[in-house]
Design goal:
Elements lengths: L53 H6 L17 E2 L8 E2 L8 E8 L5 H10 L4 E4 L1 H4 L7 H5 L3 E4 L12 H19 L5 E2 L10 H10 L3 E3 L3 E3 L4 E3 L11 E5 L11 H14 L3 E2 L6 E2 L4
Parallel strand pairs: 1-12, 2-7, 3-4, 3-10, 3-11, 4-5, 6-7, 8-10
Antiparallel strand pairs: 8-9
Helix pairs in contact: 5-6
The structure holds zinc ion (ZN).
Length: 286
């Protein structure tokens, strides 16, 4: 089905995914609707997403992705202002959509900004302060396309290996920096490697620093294909996909845009559209 090269699934490239994201529904968003008023600040911006034209896809030698449906008015995940934060790796939906998240921020390839500008594929960026501090500006045009910037610690530790106080400083310091640099407080947190996601210490640290959910993933993009958490190797509606800002030194010579093009091809082959994660999450009222 794929070109021969894709058989080589590079399992060593798992800097952010080695311990997996899995364990999805264990602590799903609270069922109680938390905001009857539903004046979510994100609701206003959620009509149909802009679509790239055929020429844009052709420029990048890609087949067009299906058009994503308009963002739902009733968000399937509703976050509360206080208390335990939910942990999830997928979004409840029947639509044939997936969500793309890109982590860390190491590779800062101008061609990738051009690619997202052309293709208008929504992504969520989980950024790590020490990895992006050499060039905060790189991510601003990506943000200006409507993409959200979320919290991924200061220096990418294994959270379960450090003290609760250190966990808190990892989340709070990245939160403060991202808020200052990008003008908006992250709503979501992702622990490096998915590590510690279900621990009380991590949940407490996240609560104390501002994010209102912990986001894991179902699939992890490598070089040519994804690592799937399920044996059938198929995307499912609502899956969250992990990718990284990586360049040739980490991608066996491939560029960020080549890797991302292959990710989009794998999504397109399975007939899925890419939707914006934040359009499916209701931020706490107020
Ligand atoms: Zn990471």
């Amino acid at each position: 089905m794929y070109a021969a090269g894709t058989a080589v699934l590079i399992s060593t490239l798992t800097a952010c995914s080695s311990s997996g994201g899995g364990t999805s529904a264990a602590s799903q968003a609270p069922a109680a609707p938390s905001a009857q008023a539903s004046a979510s600040p994100q609701a206003a911006a959620s009509s149909a997403a802009p679509q790239a034209d055929a020429a844009a896809w052709a420029k990048w030698k890609l087949k067009p992705l299906p058009e994503a449906p308009a963002a739902p008015a009733d968000k399937p995940i509703k976050l509360t202002a206080k208390g335990q934060v939910p942990v999830f790796s997928e979004v409840p939906t029947k639509d044939k959509i997936v969500f793309v998240t890109i982590d860390d921020g190491a590779e800062k390839d101008p061609k990738f900004v051009e690619m997202l500008t052309d293709l208008k594929v929504p992504v969520t960026m989980f950024l790590t302060k020490d990895i992006i501090k050499s060039d905060y500006g790189y991510f601003k045009p990506l943000q200006a396309l409507g993409n959200h910037i979320q919290n991924h610690t200061v220096d990418h530790p294994q959270m379960s290996k450090i003290s609760p106080a250190k966990q808190k400083s990892e989340v709070c310091e990245d939160q403060a920096t991202l808020t200052e640099q990008y003008g908006k407080a992250p709503l979501l947190f992702r622990p490096p490697f998915g590590d510690g996601a279900h621990t009380a210490a991590l949940n407490t640290a996240v609560q104390e620093c501002g994010p209102r959910a912990v986001v894991l993933w179902q699939e992890s993009m490598q070089v040519h294909d994804m690592q799937y958490q399920t044996g059938d190797k198929k995307l499912k509606p609502g899956d969250i996909i992990l990718a990284h800002f990586r360049g040739p030194s980490e991608l066996h010579g491939e560029t960020m845009t080549e890797m991302f093009g292959e990710l989009l091809s794998r999504i397109q082959e399975q007939g899925f559209a890419v939707a914006r994660l934040e359009d499916y999450i209701q931020a706490p009222a107020g």
